[in-house]
Design goal:
The chain is an alpha+beta fold. The chain has helices at about 5-60, 65-70, 75-85, 85-95, 100-130, 130-220, 235-255, 280-290, 290-295, 315-335, 365-370, 390-400, and strands spanning about 275-280, 300-305, 315, 340-350, 355-360, 405-410, 420-425. The chain folds into 3 domains: about 5-190; about 220-270, no CATH class; about 275-425, 2-Layer Sandwich (Heat Shock Protein 90), CATH 3.30.565. Helix 1 (about 5-60) runs antiparallel to helix 3 (about 75-85), helix 2 (about 65-70) runs antiparallel to helix 3 (about 75-85) and helix 7 packs across helix 12.
Length: about 425
């Protein structure tokens, strides 16, 4: 059975799952995007530290030839002042290395810088000793053997870092595009699903409910020829069947099609029973499932008893189910608010028959209410146990269409011990309409 509740639950569960999927994908893409942006930022800083190493080394090395030619007397102090920060710069650069290749590159540049610093120190020592010609010769050797390799090594490091930064930038751009596409796709998916839900609610819920409302309005105006489509297996289809039964019953009672003059043909014949094989146990469990929420709210204890070896029933399953559901709801209405007992049972009756019983421990029905079921000219029950006058009348019609009987029985004097609603149906049912 596909009830409106199950259909809507399935729809909104699907919507919730899609929402969770969208959140998950968006979160993942956002994390990837941020990681790409962070990696790109780290590479920018890494490039700055590499350029800083080159700049500090070059600025400090300028003081070496100045010391030889005697332009500045404090060239050595200026060299030390300029070269001192390079240690911290190397440390920061090394921390930003992400793999063995980058770490190896840092160490190679560090070793070259240390060799160059050692060469500069030898030159300054020769100058201090007054050996300027030896210092000049040493300067040429240091520039050729140490400075030029340092320059080439750092230039290659800058080139490598620039290439990797381009890859990181491309990855970050791809992550941004992926995130944008994902968000747009997810948004369109949610909007599409919402439109589908809206279309379903309009076509599967609101429109049928509008038809029921219009049919009830016509019925209230006396037009008993109104009929609704009975296709489907949900609550609205059940209401449509019951309304058709009510309209047919009113038309039979008036002998007209609902015209104001009271003349004319009777209403259209009832639709044929949709006869199928029905498992009594499964039917009772389905009925109990439909009222599960009401049972929980009312703190009602329940029981289902099916006689072993009970045969299957040929009947209109939906019509019988709705009939038993109506009787169950009447029983729940009769049970005290403090809680009570509801029992459903199925047993073999006289040969070829099956009997369903719905019993409660409510206040029960009075004698006048019990006699209503056998008298079509009387009104609906008015006692404490009869909460569904129209519904009970329709349930009676449904049972009679199957060639069966509906009986109400109070268990004790003045109905003090509850009520039993008993439905007796023949096991075999021909596919016809019984008035």
């Amino acid at each position: 059975m596909h009830t409106l509740r199950s259909k809507l639950t399935t729809t909104f569960v699907a919507l919730g799952l899609l929402g969770l999927l969208v959140i998950g994908i968006t979160s993942y893409v956002t994390v990837q995007w941020r990681e790409s942006e962070d990696e790109q930022a780290r590479h920018y800083v890494r490039s700055l530290r590499l350029q800083e190493v080159r700049a500090l080394t070059f600025e400090a090395y300028v003081e070496v030839p100045d010391a030889i030619i005697g332009v500045e007397n404090d060239a050595r102090e200026d060299y030390v002042r300029r070269i001192t920060p390079i240690g911290d710069t190397f440390a920061e650069w090394a921390e930003l290395a992400e793999d063995d290749a980058e770490r190896s590159e840092v160490e190679q540049v560090r070793a070259a810088a240390e060799d160059l610093a050692a060469g500069a120190e030898r030159i300054f020592t020769l100058v201090d000793e007054g050996r300027r010609e030896d210092a000049a010769a040493e300067l040429e050797r240091v520039e050729e053997e140490l400075f030029e390799p340092f320059d080439a090594l750092t230039t290659q490091a800058v080139t490598n870092d620039r290439a990797k930064r381009e890859v990181v930038r491309a990855d970050a751009g791809s992550a941004r595009r992926t995130a944008t596409i994902t968000l747009v796709t997810a948004t369109l998916g949610v909007i599409s699903l919402l439109l589908l839900v809206g279309a379903y609610l309009n076509g599967g819920v609101f429109r049928p409910i509008g038809r029921v409302h219009a049919a009830l309005s016509r019925l209230a105006d006396g037009h008993t020829d109104v009929r609704l489509p009975e296709d489907g297996d949900d609550e609205i289809a059940g209401v449509s069947r019951q309304l058709n039964l009510l309209a047919a019953r009113l038309a039979e009672g008036r002998g007209t099609d609902g015209g104001e003059d009271g003349h004319g043909p009777t209403g259209p014949p009832l639709a044929p029973l949709r006869v199928e094989t029905v498992d009594p146990a499964a039917l009772l469990h389905e009925v109990m499932e439909r009222v599960g929420a009401e049972v929980v709210r009312g703190r009602v204890s329940t029981g289902i008893d099916v006689e072993p070896g009970l045969g299957e029933l040929e009947a209109d399953r939906v019509l019988v189910r709705d009939t038993l559901s109506e009787l169950v709801r009447n029983a729940l209405d009769a049970i005290p608010d403090t809680g009570g007992r509801l029992e459903l049972s199925a047993a073999a009756g006289e040969p070829g028959w099956i009997t369903f019983e719905v019993s409660d421990n409510g206040p029960g029905l009075g004698e006048d209410d019990l006699s209503w079921i056998h008298d079509d000219d009387r009104g609906a029950p008015t006692g404490a146990g009869g909460a569904g006058g129209v519904g009970l009348r329709l349930a009676t019609d449904a049972v009679r269409r199957h060639g069966g009987r509906l009986e109400l029985e109070s268990r004790g004097p003045s109905g003090a011990a509850g009520t039993v609603a008993r439905v007796a149906l023949p096991l075999e049912q021909s596919a016809r309409t019984t008035r």
